[in-house]
Every structure is written in structure tokens, then in C-alpha cells.
Amino acid sequence: MRKILTLLIALGLSSFAWADFDEGIEYELLKKAQPAPTDGKVEVIEFFSYACPHCYRFEPHIEKWKGTKSDNITFIHVPAVFSDSWEALARLYYAAEVLGVQEKMHPVIFEAMHGEGKQIRGFDGVKALFVANGISEEKLDQALNSFTVAAKTRRAKTMTKSYGIDSVPNIVVQGKYRTNGTLAQSHANVFNVVDFLAEKIEKEAK
Fold first, then answer.
1. Same domain, yes or no, for 194 and 174?
2. Three-state secondary structure of 41-80
3. Which of 20, 14, 27, 29 is nearest to 1 (CA)?
4. Do 85 and 70 sit in the same domain of this protein?
5. What is the domain count for the chain?
6. Cα–Cα distance between 175 and 43 in angstroms, integer?
7. What average pLDDT does the structure give for the chain?
8. Which pLDDT belongs to residue 140?
9. In the chain, pLDDT over 90 holds for what percent of residues?
10. Beta bridge partners of 45
11. How many CB atoms sit inside 10 A of residue 111's CB?
């Protein structure tokens, strides 16, 4: 299958909808399964970081898929935490979420860091982005220092470790399966694999 997939990608057909993918090739089992929803929904988590240029390039594929994904799929971003600097970026993500501006600021932060090449170190460089988009520095500071953001960041750090995430971007489906651009052979093909896994999980639940 890998040879055929490589050929399709070379021909510009990476969005081809596969009827089947193989464990150990396009996706892998997590070493230890993690808790997943029991309400009939399929949970899809992207582990990412604003520090990661690959995550920046992956974003358009996420946005395209979100517009076509099944209503039975719940999609969640989780900022991976590998170091103190990445922990600070995770706090930034959750601060935007607490302020209700995550959808707005998520692409803005990515674009500033990787599209425009701005060197954002610490929160001072980021605050200007929030102020420029109508969020006061005072409100951002309150969110960054809130109990909620601290708790969410701790959970993201714990999830990064418990899910066995050692690179980003990585996609985990229903706390069981992992895929990424390397396994799927391209960023564009990742969500064909995700949709296949979501359908597989739904069939297994019946």
C-alpha cells in the first residue's frame, strides 16, 4: 500500500479516499490506550505547539477537514509540553480559550511566528498581538495567571507524557490510534486516515 500511496502523492492525488489503511503503516496503536468518550462520539486530538513550523504548515489541512468532518467527530487541540518554553506557549493557548478568542487568535499566533518570522520570546512579544486584536493586556494577564489556565496546562503536560507524544504534530483518535504526516506519507493524507479510523471505531462499537 505504501508504494501505491507514494505514487498517488507524486501524481497529486493525495486526497484520494482510501477504503483501507494498515496498522503499523499509516497508523499505529498507542502503547497504552487512553480514556476516550463513551457518548458515541469519536474524539480526535491534535497535539501541536506554536513553536513547531510543521504544525503551522499542517493547520490548513486541519481547517479544510474541519469543514467536512462527520458531526460524530469531536476535534480537540492539545498544546504539547516538552519544556518550559513550550509550557508557556500552552498557557497562551489556554488563555485565549478562557478569553473566548481561541478561534481568532490561534491562526494569528501561528502566522506571526512562522508566516511573518516574528521572534516571540516570553509573553511580552505576544501581548502586542492580543492588543492589536482587541484583547487588553490586563485581561490577557488575568487569564494567563488564572487557576483555570494553570490546571489546563498541567493536564496538557500530563497528556503529552501519557499519550507517548514525542513530536508534533501528532493526531490521536479515540485515545487508541496515532497518525501523522510521516506515517500517512503527507499532511494532506492524514485526515483520510483519521476518517478511516473514525469509521472503524464506529463499526466496532456497533
1. yes
2. CEEEEEEECCCCHHHHHHHHHHHHHHCCCCCCEEEEEEEC
3. 20
4. no
5. 2
6. 8
7. 90
8. 95
9. 79
10. 76, 172
11. 14
Q: Residue 46 in contact with residue 52, Cβ under 8 Å?
A: no
In terms of Cα–Cα distance, which of 61, 47, 55 is closest to 178?
47
Show the domain range for 183. 1-80+165-206
Which pTM does this prediction carry? 0.89
Residue 12: pLDDT band (50, 70, 90) is very low
Per-residue model confidence (pLDDT) at position 205: 85
The CATH number of residue 18's host domain is: 3.40.30.10
Residue type (1 letter), 204:
E
Q: Which of 16-25, 100-109, 191-200 has the lowest mean pLDDT?
A: 16-25
Helix segments in the chain, DSSP class H: 2-10, 53-66, 84-98, 102-110, 124-132, 137-144, 147-162, 181-184, 187-205
Rounded CA separation 25/128 (Å):
43
Write down the pLDDT at residue 123.
67
The helix (H) or strand (E) run that includes residue 177 is strand 177-179
Residue with cell 501581548: 127
User: Do strands 73-79 and 42-48 pair parallel, antiparallel, or not at all (unpaired)?
Assistant: parallel
What is the rounded average pLDDT of the residues 23-35? Answer: 96
pLDDT in tens, 117-126: 877 666 677 8
In single-letter form, the type of residue at position 162 comes to: S
